[in-house]
Amino acid sequence: MMPEFAKSLFGFGSKPSTPTPSQQQQQQQQQQHHPPRSTSPSSSNLPTATNSRAASVSGPQAQQQAFAPATGARTTTALSTGHYNDSGDQQQQQQQQQPVRGRLKVRVIEARGLRTPSAGSRPYVICTFDSSEFISHAPAGANPDHPSGIAIPQSRQSSSLALSKLASASSSTATSGGGGANGSANMANPTWRDEAIFDVTTGAGELEVSIYDAAHDEKYLGHARLTPELDETRPEDRWLELEARVAGEWVTGQVRVSVAYERVSARQYGPDDFEVLRLVGKGTFGQVYQVRKKDTQRIYAMKVLSKKAIVQKKEVAHTIGERNILVRTTAAQSAFIVGLKFSFQTPTDLYFVTDYMSGGELFWHLQKEGRFKEERAKFYIAELIVALENLHDHDVVYRDLKPENVLLDANGHVALCDFGLSKVNPADGKTNTFCGTTEYLAPEVLLDDKGYTKMVDFWSLGVLVFEMCCGWSPFYDKDNQQMYKNIAFGKVRFPKDALSAEGRNFVKGLLNRNPKHRLGAVDDARELRRHPFFADIDWDLLMAKKIPPPFKPHVTSETDTSNFDPEFTQASTSAVNRGFLQTSSTPLSPGIQANFQGFTYVNDSSLDDNFRRRSTMQQHDGDIDLYDDQEIQNSYNYYNLKGSELVKHLQKYQQQEEQDDDDGNESDGDVRMMDDDDFVNGQRFEL
After folding, report:
1. For the whole model, what pTM was predicted?
2. Annotated catalytic residue within 199, 349, 400, 670
3. pLDDT, tens digit, for every residue of 344-353?
4. Nearest alpha carbon to residue 122 among 195, 187, 189
């Protein structure tokens, strides 16, 4: 029998909804600003995100976001979303999420023996520590077309004895090694005058130094790794041998780096400790800014969420859940997941400070290029599998995998972000909240009133592989109800040259409509890693980020925003600061403030205890959540679609799936390859 929720979803038994004249005018304006997405694979670019994605939806607000014609405004954010805080007391306005253990000062001094292509080379350095990035200036004497970082002052004073000794040692050698201020620098032996100060929040980490040539299409010149000693009495000044990333790369030379650690006193952080630079994203509950931390000059991304909006949209529970997930993944130093550095609150807002990924959204690059070669897509998918494996191993279902939620760092590695729809699974492993982004919803989210499992993430991964390699979404339609039918029953057709046989088999395994037979149902992400599609991947090297990315984003400085949507980044600085400083005019009651208790953790032990008590938190969520998932089934006004045949089709499909389960047979998930003569105007579905 067809679930009541599915009947409502496909529009049975409801009257058509007619937009008001003001709604029609607003939709027309939005469509003019965001042109519709083309479904033709020959299109050179993917269209903008807004029409292709009915923004991530959950709860009662899904009526406006997911079940209306796809004209909505872009709500994608540029980093992982936030959760709620420790204290609801308005007098306790600002709280630190995690104590900064200290600061690590890194100075990139010089290199020697680089294999530079020409005298016009402009080698620059990307330093990464604990997922935070620093990008150097151009070398001394080079054409300064690559500005970044912090120039070291000629007479810099340090309150730390260790840092003072290191500063004097560095300045005495700052002009050695073939460079100079006379403009005749030898770019095979460049000298830099840069320093970076990293916040140390999670204990010992690895410092990676990578050198590229900005003048020759980001040519790779080598990298070195160092694990700094977090000891104030032991500063280091070392020459590091540059290494190749893979066999066959010709890398020569060394790089000189000095590091010194300084302990700092515990303190609380708030909005005044950060300088707002750019708007990089905007969502339902707030904005995402590129910010500079004033004491270390480190660049971060800051997400500012309105408490009032969170309460009004009944998203308190999701916000709490996201915070807990970010805390855990940050503590575990999970590869390929954006790290949470700080969180704090004011009486009106929640603040999440995460690593800033200067490579921008994967969606932005996919838009510009249309589609990726299979090897490039495989690399991204492999790193995402590791990210999902980490989440699933901690009983977290992600629920919103899409290109907009995948960021690239300056070297080209992925970082999964935005955990606003993620959830720690209950004991039975199932959840039933209707949420996600329409194009990536798994069929069981639409059709199964008994709930769904972590397998929904692998369905979304299959859609993502198809989109990256083929250039369009396999189920997209400008009408959401038609898109739901495509997801439930449509045939997926592959362009002849889009994927290898192994790649097609991998996608078909992920797009099996029966989650019990879907690839990953037996051994989760480890089953995906064993698929022949990844036969050439060394997973140990991949997880250590020792496999070179097939694409390096063009980044001119650590404040570069060119890889983000200019719709946001081109906002004037004054307008950005006005938005950042704007506060709610209506004070929130103490009862509402109490919902945000637990937002901040103050030490590592409470961090782990918080997550260990997730079984308790599930009960707590029931007290805080302002809507019941089961009530969603009757809360929507859907469009009326004639569908008696659709009901019969669905019933037949469900009966066949049940029979397959009884017989132990595996369903092919209704996914088949496309013949050339079946290819009509981009794509075609048989319903």
Report:
1. 0.73
2. 400
3. 888 889 999 9
4. 187
